[in-house]
Every structure is written in structure tokens, then in C-alpha cells.
Amino acid sequence: MKTKFHYILLVLFFFAWDVNAQLSTPQPSPSTKITQEFGLNELTIEYARPSMKGRTIFGDLVPYDKVWRTGANAATKLTFKDDVLINGQELAKGTYALFSIPSKDEWTIIISNNVDSWGTGRYNEEDDVLRFKVKPQTIANTTQTFTILPENISITSMELSVSWENTKVTFAVETEVDSKVDRQIAQLLSPARDAGIYYQAANYYFEKGKDLDKAEEWINKSVEMNPRFWTVHLQAKILAKNGKSKEAKKAANKSIELAKEAGNDDYVRLNQNLIKTL
């Protein structure tokens, strides 16, 4: 009786062990997640990365003229924190799937609402939000592992590139900045009065080449309230840009004085270089 009871326990033990045991192995197409800020916006890319492994990719593993999930495993996802323009077309903030139709001379890029798909089996054109054409480039260096990257990032835009084998396609992503910053400036400068905010507002307008008279007004207020070597240096640059060389030189020398007191040799050099241009 005991022997039979022990046998049953042994069977139950191995059954439980078999159910719960899991083997962890490397994924052939490992997943990755990239978050990229641009302007006041943010893009998060989630996708799997297959490798060539000696295979011919486009026209073979990835057939021409058919919908491709543009990656491996689950749908490649693009999440935008705020509204954008993609290739000149409006796209509301949110999460979307990236599909494509590769061809030899032209790709169709598809932004879809179908974020839960696995492969293209559940792809439905009715879920498309945007479609547009791009020209593929032939690149000299072979991209062994499928890659999606943000490139050429600026204050208001960036490019999103898709590369594999010797093929690369890119498309533009743009975001609105000026109107958002202007609203912040209006809110923060009225009724509050803060030297740092005046400096930031002046610096933004200077860097963007917007209304330099207004930038000069704001930096003058910042310097009047709390002169620091970096704020006075910006004042010198704005005065120089507005053609006021004499006032710019005076401000640059004042910034040098403040920078020396603070032990900041970098700003001493920046001001000296600015004076040479006046």
C-alpha cells in the first residue's frame, strides 16, 4: 500500500515539475524600445530586430509589393506624446503600428491603428490612418540587424529611418513648438516677473531668430534684475545681432568680469571671441 502511495506522489511531483518548468533561451529577434525627445514632443519606438543570418532580405525574405510588418514578432509601435506631421500629413498624438509595402523603386509607408497585430495576418487597410510613398536608398554598409532610428533631430523635426541589408528609407516627422513656447512665455511673464524666465524667453527668440527687439527687451530686464555672466553674454550677443556693436562690447566686457569672478574660463573665451567679431 505504501509503495503504491509513494508511486502516486512521485507521479504527481514530476507532473507538477513538468507544468511549471520553463526554459529561457535567447530570442532570435530581440525586442527594443527607444524614446527620443524632439522639440517639446517625444517619440517612443517599440519593435523586434531580426538579423540577416546570411539571407537575402528584400525581394526574398521580405517579398516586394506585399504588406510587411516592418520588423518581426508583434507590430512595430510608434507612440507620439503630442500631435505631429508625418511626411506633411497630420497625425494625432497616440500609439500606432508601422507597416510598409517595400518595392524596388518605391515604398509605401503605412501608419495604422492596428497595434495588436502579430505579423500581417490581421492587417486590414480599413485601420490605416496614413499612407505615403518614399524612395528607398541603397547604402554601402550592410545593416545586418533590422534598425529603426530617429535621425537629423532639430528643435521642430526629425527623420525616422528604417534600415536593413543595403536598403534605407526615411520620412520626416515634424512637431509644433513656437505657439506652445509663446503661450508659456505669456503665462509665465504675466503677472510673475522672474529674471530666469526673461533670460529663457530671450534666448529662445534669439536662437530662433524671432523678434530680436523683443528678445533684447527681455534680456535687458533679466540683466537688470539679476546680472549673471551667462545672461550678460546673451545680452551682448543680442545687441550685436541688432547692430549695436558699442553696447555689445560693453556687455561682453561685463560678462568677462563676472565670469572671472565665478572662475568660468569658458565664458571668458566666449566673450573674447565675440568682441573680436564686433
Largest sheet: 6 strands, antiparallel
How far apart, in Å, are the first and last alpha carbons? 104 Å
Give, in spatial order, the strands making up the sheet with the most strands: 1-2-3-6-7-8
Q: From the structure provided, what is the oligomeric state, counting identical versus distinct chains?
A: single chain
Q: Mean pLDDT across all residues, rounded?
A: 89
| Radius of gyration, CA atoms, in whole angstroms | 29 Å
Structural class computed from helices and strand pairing: alpha+beta
Uncertain regions: pLDDT < 50 for 5+ in a row? Answer: 9-14
Classify the helix fraction into a percent range: 25-40%
Compressed to H and E, one letter per element, the order equals HEEEEEEEEEEHHHHHH
Number of helices: 7
Percentage of β-strand residues: 25-35%
Tell me the domain tally.
2
Report the principal-axis shape.
elongated
Number of strands: 10
Task: Give the structure's gist in a few sentences.
The protein folds into two domains: 144 residues, no CATH class; 100 residues, Alpha Horseshoe (Serine Threonine Protein Phosphatase 5, Tetratricopeptide repeat). Helix content is 37%, strand content 29%. The protein is built from seven helices and ten strands.
